[in-house]
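Supplementary Text 2. Reproducibility record for the structural model of the 47-residue chain.

All settings were left at their defaults, and a single model was retained for analysis rather than an ensemble. We include the record here because the model underlies the residue-level annotations in Supplementary Table 4.
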Amino acid sequence: MWTTEGGLWKRGIGRVAGVDEVGRGPLAGPVVAAAVILPGSADAGHR
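Retained model, structure tokens:
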């Protein structure tokens, strides 16, 4: 994923949202989705 983000940053796209969803399936029950954009200085603990 860092490769994808790095390519976008090089093209001048500064904000990239991480998206996740959880649920039983598109037709089988409730689904919850979330997206977040953190500042570039945020340390997520990745090395």
